[in-house]
């Protein structure tokens, strides 16, 4: 018994040290800036506005749109306007008129040119550019939902920490009540010194749990503040209780939706279309190109519109590369390999989407069942603790049984909190996979 009492005293000393550390940590936390309170919608909106990944994806869409516009422009004629002037300090002799005149010259001109036939090159370039635009848009959707998932995860981390703090505070209150009961029984002579020491140890453990929960929330608030572009912590507004609702779509409907709308699948399809267009583009090098151009020019010896001399020209050109040292063959082979790889990547993207969907649906169902089980376990733990507290008050049980019941209640509360937020995170993952809110 003396050895057990000595061990308990050591634990109590350690608990006292932890209590001092808790107060110091509380002082540090008190010096932190006041957190900005945000709702879930505000967190998502601000994260999307300040996400470098979303900005980069939006830039990729703009660049792809410019490339598509350039591909369309290849079907249109070009138009150029030019002008020039040349001044000289010497006179020029014209042998045709035997007259010495000015050597200055002024000219202006307009020219145009258009490709009449490119062997399908322009069409392939346009198809490729449109496919790349579609891939960029799908990547933007995927990036947006990924960022939304991260925003919700950061929000739920703060919410989870808040729930853990409430659980730790309730545990500390129960420990204080248990200690008071043990001290009263000890003073009455119906409890041993060991009972008081065990109660003090439970209170110390409760304080340590509260310290850890506060530190966890502080770190989560700063992480959330970083996402929403705040130079400091961000807290969450008081929200309604988390709901676990059934999905509006069946698993088969979700699968069809994922295979047709998932950003990863759309990106893979667009990349495969772009690769096939690249093959056509490479094969167009075997075809001749036909282009036409024309120009109209004016020139004069003086900077005036009188006595203008004009000229015009039309030109038609045909180009056909007969042999370019197998550069075309290399280009065709390279693009064919890329098309083959893109086709297999598309098939793999569909399989990966199906596998991820099944895994997330399983996680949602598991979390839903875990919530029900955790609620039942919490009710049992609360009733068990109530019974043990009454038994200890009547003197028919020991403080060890009551402390064990308190620990079981803490475990049940944490299990319920974890199951609730695991469900919400799995739902956010599912939305990111499909590319739409559910």
Molecular structure report:
The chain is of the alpha+beta class. The protein is built from nine helices and eight strands. Strands 2-5-7-8 form a four-stranded antiparallel beta sheet, with no helix packed on it. α2 crosses α4 and α6 (251-261) runs antiparallel to α8 (327-394). It is elongated.
In whole angstroms, how far apart are the ends?
Answer: 61 Å
The number of E-state strands comes to 8
Q: What overall geometry do the principal axes of the alpha carbons give?
A: elongated
- Sketch the major β-sheet: 4 strands, antiparallel
Radius of gyration: 39 Å
Mean pLDDT, to the nearest integer, reads 85
Largest sheet, spatial ordering of strands: 2-5-7-8
**Total of helices:** 9
Beta-strand proportion:
5-15%
Helix/sheet category = alpha+beta
Summarize this entry quickly.
It is built from 9 helices and 8 strands.
Which SSEs are present, and which pair or pack?
Elements (H helix, E strand, L loop, with lengths): L1 H29 L5 E3 L1 H11 L1 H22 L4 E9 L4 E4 L4 E4 L2 E13 L3 H68 L4 H35 L6 E3 L14 H11 L1 H21 L5 E12 L8 E11 L7 H68 L4 H36 L4
Helix pairs in contact: 1-5, 2-4, 3-4, 4-5, 4-7, 4-9, 6-8, 7-8, 8-9
Summary keywords:
two-stranded parallel ribbon, four-stranded antiparallel sheet, 8 strands, 438 residues, alpha+beta, disordered N terminus
